[in-house]
Design brief:
Pdz3 Domain; seven-stranded mixed β-sheet; 2-enoyl-CoA Hydratase, Chain A, domain 1; 3 domains
């Protein structure tokens, strides 16, 4: 009987930083004014400033060419202005807003009118604020910080947590992590908005975090003796990561402990395979997908053959706490178990596309259970929803996170990056999971009293495969 371990204990804590919380696509469209044209439309700003803002205009273009919902240019400009002023840490931002923002609204435009918009006129208030800041503070300002603040402000005005900017360091870390290898402590994390700490959602086996005695549920609140609860998730991650062989002192807030605990963790190179597997009692194969990397589909097929899944009494596919990954990978994974039919429906502005199973299934008949929880997001929800709608598997666990959107990722000229929501996806039956998630066929909370207890969700999956537990039909 399988017992609880660090790579299978899956807390119900929402979104992880994990490596890429999204269904990702790698392409993008760029049809309207080029960034060069927009760079040159910045009024009287000197060439160095025009070049500095190239990433901003790249982001502007990418939004207008790809974003899933209509945009209001006036709102975007004002949000960029506010983001820039906030990044300057000016003690009296209201005075700047009162001086530079027009009393009347600049007429908003839709995406089709972008080529006719007078960008220079639209951004007059923005550059007036830029000039005021520099007249007040001069050389004390970090212009790169102001430019990045403008991007962050503009994107935050969309109210879309999945459309955001990553500075060069953060973007490099994410790309590194998505490759499956990086240097750090070996944990997936998420920011706890209540405490400000960085919560360890799961611990990678045979990792520095495991060796140091860190546990899922621990929260990093100090790094090298400094309080980090006021920092962003990306900033804390950057402090925790570092070259292999170097120590990092972490202050840990642990449930049930009244005081902050200190742990010294020796960083190492972390190799995080996206697929784990083993055989359980009862001749049942168990496969866990940690995330949907580019090679996950191939690894899954290899594991299915190694475990001889088609000659087993059942299969448990575990996507609990799986934050997602590539859209193409999710289709590859679902196609392993589905011979034909729709896998997912993608809808964007003026378009709809249904992705069909690839026709290369290798395990279409083995009895199957999919395990999910509140940490199952995006690509993992896509696979669970397809297998559920097509009656290919019984879904067991807790309702999933509810991320039903697709993002494109784009590197900017400064080495940073943006991810932009370009479409929303629906299960084969046309159901949206946004904000509501996938409802399991059998609800099973994850409730244990000690790490030695059996995993109740895996136990329920075994009972389903052995015919001892069945879904209750909705009335």
């Amino acid at each position: 009987m399988r017992r609880f371990s660090t790579h299978t204990r899956l807390f119900t804590f929402g979104v992880m930083l994990a490596l890429a919380l999204a269904v990702l696509v790698t392409g993008y469209v760029l049809n309207s004014r080029s960034s060069d044209e927009l760079v040159q439309a910045q009024g009287d700003q000197p060439p160095a400033v025009q070049e500095l803002f190239r990433p901003f205009w790249e982001t502007w273009n990418l939004l207008h060419d790809n974003y899933v919902d209509p945009l209001d240019d006036n709102t975007l400009m004002k949000a960029a202005l506010v983001g820039m002023v906030e990044a300057s840490e000016d003690p009296d931002p209201a005075a700047i807003y009162d001086e530079v923002l027009p009393e009347g609204e600049i007429e908003a435009t839709d995406d089709e009118d972008i080529e006719t918009v007078d960008i220079e006129e639209l951004f007059d208030p923005f550059w007036a604020a830029w000039d005021l800041l520099h007249a007040e503070y001069g050389g004390d300002l970090d212009d790169t910080t102001l430019m990045e603040g403008a991007i962050i402000g503009m994107l935050s005005s969309l109210g879309d947590p999945h459309t955001d900017y990553m500075d060069p360091d953060t973007y490099a870390h994410i790309l590194e992590a998505m490759s499956g290898a990086y240097e750090g402590i070996g944990a997936t994390v998420r920011k706890d908005e209540n405490t400000g700490g960085l919560e360890l959602v799961s611990i990678i086996e045979v990792s520095p975090a495991e060796a140091a005695g860190l546990r899922p549920g621990d929260q990093i609140v100090e790094v090298a003796g400094d309080d980090v609860t006021g920092l962003t998730q990306s900033e804390i991650v950057a402090l925790v990561r570092g070259p292999a062989g170097t120590p990092v002192l972490l202050g840990i807030l642990r449930p049930g402990e009244p005081e902050i605990l200190e742990f010294e963790v020796i960083r190492d190179e972390i190799t995080a395979p996206s697929v784990y597997s083993e055989m359980l009692d009862g001749d049942i194969a168990y496969i866990r997908l940690v995330q949907f990397d580019l090679d996950t589909g191939v690894l899954l097929r290899n594991v299915i053959e190694e475990l001889d899944v088609n000659n087993r009494s059942g299969l448990i596919l575990d996507v609990r706490a799986d934050p997602g990954g590539y859209l193409t990978t999710s289709i590859e994974v679902a196609s392993v178990f589905i011979e034909e039919g729709p896998v997912v429906i993608e809808r964007g502005p003026g378009r709809e596309h249904t992705y069909q199973a690839l026709g290369n299934a290798i395990a279409p008949d083995v009895p199957m259970v999919v395990l999910v929880d509140e940490g199952s997001a995006s690509a993992s929800e896509l696979v669970a929803g397809a297998l559920q709608d097509l009656d290919r598997a019984v879904v067991v666990g807790m309702p999933t996170f509810g991320k039903g959107s697709v993002q494109t990722w784009r590197e900017l000229s400064n080495g940073g990056g943006v991810r932009i929501t370009i479409s929303r996806w629906y299960t084969p039956n046309g159901t949206s999971v946004s904000e509501v998630g996938i409802t399991p066929d059998i609800i099973v909370p994850f409730e244990i009293e000690s790490p030695e207890d059996d995993d109740p969700q895996i136990q329920a999956a075994i009972e389903v495969l052995q015919g001892e537990l069945e879904p209750v039909a909705a009335e």
